[in-house]
Design brief:
The protein is mainly α and about 230 residues long. It has 11 helices and no strands.
């Protein structure tokens, strides 16, 4: 597994420890940090309970702050929820941008991107649940965010750049739309997290088994590469 993925995992564990520590710490006169800490706690609250079930009271209690402070920074529960979505999408796109895929040969770059997507989503189930919740709302809040829409442009551009290089070099077959390729990468990685409980129970699969997870990861990488190969 590449160093970037390890860093993402360490970042996830560290952020949870930080949130726990922050919950018991007094507030400082640092608006940016205060907002980031609120978003961190709210991310878990919204991912677990959805927009309707999440309570500002619980977030405020975990933060040892007041509801008034949260409303001061975010305006409303919906405003906080939107900020959580933007932060979640910003984080994955920021890490993707640091993979330096343009420095790799097309097939190697594609393999690295698919493996990263699998690892990131597996290590960040809160992100998957947030996306699932937003789909329940039919993308209502995501549609309000120019930030999220702008963030996804470079993501598609990156996939397109890898694919176009592969076509020019005769490695990949022509005629695949970059958005379709992006969806093909995201779908099995998303399913691996979103459906782990139901699929695992029905087919008696232990999704916590490291060897099985590694085999599933490699199978998804290979499936995508074979899909585009010339």
């Amino acid at each position: 597994m590449n160093e970037t993925v390890h860093s993402a995992r360490r970042g996830t564990a560290a952020s949870r420890k930080k949130a726990a520590a922050t919950a018991g710490a007094p507030r400082t006169n640092d608006p940016d940090r205060t907002m980031a800490d609120i978003i961190e706690v709210a991310t878990h609250e919204f991912s677990e309970k959805g927009l309707a079930g999440a309570r500002i009271d619980d977030i405020a209690e975990a933060m040892r702050t007041s509801k008034r402070m949260i409303y001061y920074y975010f305006g409303s529960k919906e405003g906080l929820y939107l900020a959580v979505l933007e932060a979640a999408y910003s984080r994955i796109r920021r890490i993707e941008a640091g993979l330096h895929l343009q420095d790799l040969a097309p097939e190697a770059a594609l393999r690295k991107l698919v493996a990263f997507t699998f690892d990131y989503q597996a290590e960040n189930p809160d992100f998957i649940r947030l996306v699932m919740n937003e789909n329940i709302h039919r993308g209502e809040f995501l549609a309000q965010s120019k930030t999220i829409q702008q963030l996804n442009v470079p993501a598609i551009d990156a996939v397109g750049e890898i694919y176009d290089r592969g076509v020019r070099e005769g490695v990949f077959r022509p005629g695949i739309d970059p958005v379709s390729l992006h969806m093909a990468i995201a779908a099995p990685c998303f399913f691996n997290v979103a459906n782990r409980h139901t699929f695992g129970l029905i087919f008696k699969i232990d999704f916590d088994d490291a060897a099985a997870t590694a085999a599933r990861r490699e199978a998804i990488v290979e499936m995508i590469v074979r899909f585009v190969k010339a």
